[in-house]
Amino acid sequence: MLMMEKATVGSRRYWAWILCLAAIILAGFLCYLRQLSHGLAITGLSRDVTWGLYIAQFTFFVGVAASAVMVVLPYYLHDYKAFGRITILGELLAVSAVTMCLLFVFVDMGQPARVLNVLLYPSPSSLMFWDFISLGGYLFLNALIPFVMLRAEREEVSPPKWIKPIVILSIPWAVSIHTVTAFLYSGLPGRAFWLTAVLVPRFLASAFASGPALLILLCLILRKVSRFDAGDNAIHQLGLIVTYAMVINVFLVSVEFFTVFYSRIPEHLEHFRYVFFGLDGNYHLAPWMWLSAALAIAALILLLVPAWRNSPRLLPLACAFVFVSVWIEKGLGLIVGGFTPSPLGSITRYTPTWPETTIVLGVWAIGALMITVFYKIALSVREEAGVR
Amino acid sequence: MKITRKDFLRLSGLGLLALAGKKAVRAFAEAAAPSASPQTIKRWGMVIDLQKCRQKDGCTDCVKACNLAHNIPQIPDRAHEVKWIWNQSFESVFPQVQTDYTQQAYAGHPIPLLCNHCANPPCVRVCPTQATFKRENDGIVMMDFHRCIGCRYCMAACPYGSRSFNWQDPRPAIPSINSDFPTRTKGVVEKCNFCEERLARGLRPACVEACPEKAMVFGDLSNPETEPRKLLRARFALQREPELGTSPSVYYLI
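Predict the joint structure of the above. Result:
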């Protein structure tokens, strides 16, 4: 019924990979147990920098999850056939990414046993409440749609009619998850780094660049390790989407730069100075941010020239650059930069600790495991049904 | 006993109905209870006279009194410290009143900082569980340590850095436990509560009482005849970052 049996047959290489992921998950879990007993003091977080790697990863992966809309929309709304084969991969990637998001929020909680208080005492004035609703709903939609579609494929019947409005609903819903996530930050009066309306479009643009970039990389990996071929056409179209989104993302960041550096209002400027140039001898974020900027520019150069973008050797490189660049910008600089300097002007250095990093890797491994199992099931069902 | 599907549905339906009934009864009960009359609605506030406060340099009596009254752990690691009231230099507290050339009269002087008990508190707005809330009858911004899930969204939202998180179990770091006030557990946020436990007994906040210079004046800001309101009429006062629209209830007399 759940088609799980498809995930239990595989090659030696498949099982070695699963085992490797399981080991990382176990290590992360053990570190989490330690955090559970000692408290969040085992992380690098502090009174001034209260959110770090966990919430940053959450923010980044909400973007990856939302990016499924970049294949869903052309396929279902415009009947763009080239994405027919990869749409399900996008949706399943979204399921894994949302699950990772929820786990990242969960491991960040000081009192995880009380997390259901969010539902017990619903607080519509809190954006975190809405984030729970939008992420939960998105998870449900993106789990339901591929399941129904895949089952129809297996039975070799056309999918039920009622799924169409649900697919349509998933499109604005995808935009909503990242909008609400940006609102978490952009509505706080004392945090000038985030207090900008352009944060929402920036989040969406960087999401629609990094998510499809990851999807391209996954398709290329699938081409190597399985008989599945996404098709050159689909991959080139995805490459085009990454290009547009990355151009818009870099443009929006530059626009932000102009406002901050030209107006020179200290409370806005200080954060940018800290993140890119360092303040009072604290430079530890700057190299990362410059790496992110360099990767973004390198990726743009590779992507903007059609011959390079469509080259089978350069495209994966460009995609990796986009992914890493956005990961640093959103998964590192954005959160820590918002907290430093603190409202009272102090600079507290944040360095993730080993247990904290291991927990993060554990959640990454859970995401990778979900992707592996989901793709295995989806592709096995397809092969059997002869859809390929 | 075997429960058929029909029984199960019927039982769960009844259960849901009972739950809804309980909610309705509670709602009615709340509506029937006498609400506070306008006269009893207060807005507690504090006026800190910096001219008096700075007279005794190095004095931390208010901080010590608060730490003792509220079981504040003394954690040496600055990253993990918990503080409800503390001193910080004038420049970092009021950066916007600095000028380029004049030697500020208060430069370098420690300013007592605590929760501002804002009339429009961002921390309350963002809390996903209403674990932090503003009391309607006296304006105190409170924390429910038992409901807080430790997400620390309120700490991101507070523009004053007034909130602390228990990164570890605070109990071993409490020098002497005051059994009249609860200790906290790891993983929850806490902050100044304007000594609501003392106000309930008709006492003034511990810091106000401890101040040897009587620099802190506490009272109802909604009543023009109270001591803090008289001071605010007579002297020039600052609020911390009033431009953020939070409307702090703590004033600093210059």
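The mean pLDDT of chain A is 92.
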